[in-house]
Write a structure and sequence with these properties.
The chain contains eleven helices and two strands; from the N terminus they run H-H-H-H-E-E-H-H-H-H-H-H-H. With 302 residues, it is mainly alpha-helical. It has one domain: ABC transporter involved in vitamin B12 uptake, BtuC, CATH 1.10.3470.
Length: 302
């Protein structure tokens, strides 16, 4: 059997997993499902694309790339700045919208507000950049055979490695840093954490910044391997929530593991039943987990 679906699924699962980290942290700490999170993916990709053009225009060596990769320093520098700006966008959205509703203690209103924010951000993005797809690079890459009928491009290998590095950094941040411990404390019991001296407002800002930056990284990866579109984040929204719930709300490791499972499952479904049913796989995973193990793989049963 051709195992190409494994490589395709791992690459897509890595992108889903990075985006799902923001979803799971937001849900665990702020206690609501943020449906605008997919738009951070799209905005991050477009911000990086615009900055890449600016950096490339002023770069001395405009043709430099990293070996067989399709990109070079312009995209790396643009990605770093875009991650900060996308995190800032998430913080600004919270300050302008969610913080005002959070004080009223109504999670349903916040969920509905996130729907409205998602529509506004998506339409603004389409107005600014049009609905035409864009690309970070037009360079054609030859896939490398690695055995068992699997072929993978240098970009995909690099992005898988980058996902692993980001996952290790975020996991270490959550476990070992003071901010990470504060985030876990607020997720466990926000009232007790506040009484214990934890700066809850700072934790919330850190959560939005971290989630936005990782969403930006996921968006850039999608843009490098596929294309950049205003609806790219919306298309990933269901897989993001499926991965977050499958892994267990609040678990960074669970989000990444859930993303890989969802990605491989979707790739296998494309091979077996066709691409038309790909979106249904994330929905089936989501429903199955909610029915039989709502705590997820890494969550704690109540």
């Amino acid at each position: 059997m051709n195992l190409q679906f494994l490589a395709d699924g791992l690459v897509m699962g890595a992108m889903i997993g990075l985006g799902a980290i923001g979803v799971t942290l937001t849900y665990a700490i702020l206690r609501f499902a943020n449906f605008a999170h997919g738009e951070f993916i799209a905005w991050g990709a477009y911000i990086a694309l615009a900055l890449t053009g600016v950096v490339g225009a002023i770069a001395v060596d405009k043709s430099s790339t990293f070996g067989s990769l399709s990109f070079g320093w312009p995209i790396i520098l643009a990605a770093a700045v875009a991650a900060v700006l996308t995190g800032g966008l998430a913080v600004a959205l919270d300050l302008c919208l969610f913080s005002r509703l959070r004080n009223r203690g109504n999670a349903i209103v916040m969920v509905i507000a996130s729907f409205g924010a998602s529509l506004a951000l998506r339409n603004l993005l389409e107005f600014l950049f049009t609905s035409q797809p864009a690309y970070f690079s037009q360079k054609i890459q030859m896939a490398i055979p690695i055995g068992a009928g699997i072929r993978i491009t240098p970009d995909q290998l690099f992005l898988l490695g980058l996902t692993m590095v980001l996952f290790i950094l975020v996991d270490s941040f959550m476990v070992h840093s003071a901010s990470g411990r504060a985030m876990r404390a607020v997720a466990e019991n926000p009232t007790l954490a506040k009484i214990s001296g934890v700066n809850v407002d700072k934790v919330i800002r850190t959560t939005w910044m971290l989630g936005g930056a990782l969403a930006c990284a996921a968006g850039i990866m999608v843009g490098l391997t596929v294309q950049v579109r205003p609806y790219m984040g919306f298309d990933l929204l269901l897989p993001l929530f499926a991965a977050a719930i499958l892994g267990g709300i609040g678990s960074v490791r669970g989000a990444v593991a859930g993303g890989l499972i969802v990605g491989i499952s979707e790739a296998l479904a494309v091979r077996l039943v066709g691409a038309d049913y790909r979106a249904a796989i994330a929905f089936l995973i989501l429903v199955t987990v909610l029915m039989f193990r709502p705590a997820g793989l890494f969550g704690v049963r109540p």
